[in-house]
Design brief:
Elements lengths: L2 E7 L3 E8 L5 E7 L5 H16 L8 E5 L2 H8 L5 E6 L5 H4 L8 H6 L12 E4 L2 E2 L5 E3 L3 H13 L4 E5 L8 H13 L5 E3 H4 L5 H31 L5 E5 L5 E3 H6 L7 H16 L5 E6 L4 E7 L2 E2 L1 E7 L2 E8 L1 E4 L5 E5 L5 E7 L18 H7 L8 E2 L3 E2 L2 H15 L3 H23 L11 E5 L3 H12 L4 E3 L6 H8 L2 E12 L5 H21 L7 E11 L6 E5 L8 H17 L7 E12 L21 E7 L2 E9 L8 E3 L2 E4 L4 E4 L3 E5 L5 E5 L3
Parallel strand pairs: 1-4, 4-11, 5-6, 5-9, 9-10, 13-23, 23-24, 30-32
Antiparallel strand pairs: 1-2, 2-3, 7-8, 11-12, 13-14, 14-15, 14-18, 16-17, 19-20, 21-22, 24-35, 25-28, 26-27, 26-28, 29-30, 31-34, 32-33, 34-35
GO biological process, one term: glutathione metabolic process
Protein name: Acetophenone carboxylase gamma subunit
Enzyme class: ligase
């Protein structure tokens, strides 16, 4: 395989990165997103990258695509009309839900609980029962299933969810009910809960399956449409979609499990940042991905992205493996405004791609963070976003002047105020994934990427105390780069519920081996060669009769009768770090998990030739505003930088996909991989 392409759809831009595995040559494309039909922007970006690289669409071997289709559908509640078939007597499972409010008393008073995605009138109960040990108490009423499915189809349902009580232990009834549903309506999108979540917690398992069905028809339509467009253009390679956990899976698997791509785009950036940080020798980093609409942050330890298994989109909390990413509505397109009390606010409303910030010259008139950067000279007037979009400086000033007039200050002060507020919003997000998780951010570096990330990263590193700041070679398209570095992967889990101290290692090994076999079979279906298979094993542990679960890594070969002491030590070390105490209680293995990976090759990048032991060549100088005064700051072209070049702030580094700001008192050095490593002073 020689030509791989990653494409990431954002709220404002669609980013494309094409890499030749043989030469390491990179080609970047950045086009405006097309919210009405994401595939139009995707195809335009792919064609632009291919034209620039000098290849045809038919020469691509692999396309890896991160999409916000599922995210948007759930948040905007624009999914399919779905029906739910469940155990008779449990039809209200989605209404009972789980107690949750968005805050303390006021949050509870002000919350308007949304209606379930499947209303009661589209829910049917059928006779069947499996007990908690998996034994069948009452056989499945197959005629009842047929009648329920036909009734729901007559009522207009477009997809179906089947979620029976205790199906995670014994899925036989769910699987038979699916067969019956497909006999009644061949081709009907059907999701069964045991395929998606093989764990206890009836509500979360049911909701996850409902969300899968809710999004499935449109995801099938989108993926099929994109594949058709690509094939019409001559593409005969493989299309993989990026998962929420930063791995990838085939288009076929995506159509079966769309709930697994709910956080597709942001995960790629975190994986790419972790990959580059490992290679830069800074395995512990915070990742800072600032785009046009939002900012996504994550924490990486030992070169690996933190993973969580509970996701939330809007009100809905469901079970899905994903990168532990925190998002805030702060991006380059975030709109600044004065609230009713006259206070300045920034975001979360965004100018998006159409019309975009005022400086885009596409009809936008409201002041945005990007416009504020233009006014302060941090986006120099001669710059072209994406190498093509010229900045309208006068339009940016007119937009920011609206805020300045309302505050009674000049436009420069207003622009700085907009930047300061946006930075504080993003600072708070970084604290969520570090301080609130029990980590000191001063022990971490910061990797900045996204189209707007390097513009603000120096200020964020200063605010949170992270050192060093790393700006990758292609920061504006690092999410697309992360897709190229991602493994094909999926997780397979089983509720276990046994005391570690009382369970022989051989028993645990037997359960793990079964999960490894499932993972291997899935990887085979994904066309991953057996030599590239890798497996990671985890046990979700908790103190007996507690429900705080912590995943602990297990070595398969270490599952002998002495494993329990090792497992307890790992669990209590992490429990103490998170919560500050230990208990004199048995440790219970709640869930066993196996992550199956199809390991990809490392990407060897072409980063230009030559090294330097001198300061970098200056392209020109511009007036840039820092610390209440204007500075004559040098402007550098990223393409002219070589390993060893040093840049002293204040300075601006321009490139096709992003702009990097180095503040006064800081200096950047280009490392052997082409990253700019920024530190305070002369360190």
């Amino acid at each position: 395989m020689s030509l791989k392409l990653g494409v990431d759809v954002g709220g404002t831009f669609t980013d494309v990165l094409l890499v030749s595995e043989e030469t390491g040559q990179l080609t970047i494309a950045k086009v405006l997103s097309t919210p009405g039909d994401q595939s139009e922007g995707v195809l335009a970006g792919i064609r632009q990258a291919c034209d620039t690289h000098g290849v045809s669409l038919g020469e691509l071997d692999l396309i890896l695509h991160g999409s916000t289709v599922v995210t948007n559908m759930i948040l905007e509640e624009k999914g399919a009309v779905g029906g739910l078939v469940t155990t008779a007597g449990h039809e209200q499972i989605l209404h009972l839900a789980r107690a949750w409010t968005p805050g303390p008393l006021y949050g509870w008073m002000g919350m308007i609980k949304p209606s379930p995605l499947v209303p009661l009138w589209l829910t049917r109960g059928v006779a069947q029962r499996t007990d908690a040990a998996g034994a069948v108490v009452a056989e499945l009423d197959e005629d009842g299933v047929r009648a329920a499915v036909q009734d729901l189809l007559d009522a207009g349902t477009e997809s179906l969810t089947i979620a029976f009580l205790n199906a995670y232990v014994n899925p036989a009834h769910e699987r038979r009910a699916r067969e019956i549903a497909l006999e009644v309506r061949p081709g009907l999108p059907v999701s069964i809960s045991s395929d998606l979540v093989s764990e206890y917690r009836e509500y979360e398992r049911t909701l996850t399956a409902v969300l899968n069905s809710y999004t499935q028809p449109q995801v099938i339509k989108y993926v099929d449409g994109l594949e058709s467009l690509l094939q019409d253009g001559g593409f005969a390679g493989r299309l993989n979609i990026v998962r929420s956990d930063g791995g990838t899976m085939s288009a076929r698997s995506t159509k079966e499990r769309p709930v697994d791509i709910a956080f597709s785009g942001p995960s790629g950036g975190a994986v790419g940042a972790a990959y580059l940080a490992r290679r830069a020798g800074v395995p512990n980093v915070l990742t800072f991905d600032m785009g046009g609409t939002s900012t996504d942050v994550a924490l990486c330890r030992g070169g690996e992205v933190a993973i969580k298994r509970e996701a939330q989109l809007g009100y809905y909390q469901f079970q899905a493996r994903g990168a532990d990413i925190h998002s805030v509505g702060a991006g380059g397109g975030s709109i600044a405004y004065l609230n009713l009390a006259g206070a300045l606010k920034v975001g979360p409303r965004s100018a998006g791609a159409d019309p975009g910030p005022a400086c885009y010259g596409r009809g936008g008139e409201e002041p945005t963070v990007t416009d504020a950067n233009v006014v302060l000279g941090r986006l120099p007037g001669g710059s072209k976003l994406g190498g093509r979009l010229a900045l309208d400086v006068d339009a940016a000033r007119r937009a920011v002047a609206k805020v300045a007039e309302g505050l009674g200050i000049d436009e420069v002060a207003a622009a700085q105020a907009i930047i300061d507020i946006a930075n504080e919003n993003m600072h708070a997000a970084l604290r969520v994934v570090s301080v609130e998780r029990g980590y000191d951010p001063r022990d971490f570096g910061l990797v900045a990427f996204g189209g707007a990330g390097p513009l603000h990263a120096n200020a964020l590193a200063r605010l949170i105390g992270a050192d060093p700041l790393i700006v990758p070679t292609t920061p504006g398209v690092l999410s697309a780069f992360g897709f190229l570095a991602a493994d094909v992967q999926n997780e397979f889990a089983r509720t276990y519920l046994r005391m570690a101290e009382d369970t022989p290692g051989e028993h645990v090994r037997g359960a793990v081996d079964e999960l490894v076999s499932e993972a291997a079979a899935w990887l085979h279906d994904e066309e991953v060669h057996a030599d590239d298979h890798a497996f990671e094993v985890y046990a979700d542990c908790r103190y007996y009769r507690q429900d705080i679960q912590i995943p602990c890594s297990l070595e398969i070969e270490g599952l002998t009768n002495g494993y329990a002491a090792v497992l307890r030590a790992a669990f209590e070390t992490e429990h103490s770090r998170r919560y500050g105490f230990e208990l004199d209680a048995p440790v219970e293995i709640a869930t066993l998990r196996v992550v199956g990976r199809g390991v990809t090759r490392d990407i060897e990048l072409e980063l230009g030739t030559g090294t330097a032991d001198t300061d970098a060549p200056v392209d020109r100088t511009e007036q840039v505003h820092f610390d209440g005064t204007w500075h004559e700051a040098p402007i550098y072209e990223r393409a002219e930088l070589r390993a060893g070049h040093r840049i002293s702030g204040p300075a601006i580094v321009e490139q096709e996909d992003s702009t990097t700001v180095i503040e006064p008192g800081y200096a950047g050095t280009v490392d052997d991989a082409g990253n700019i490593i920024i530190r305070e002073g002369n360190r």
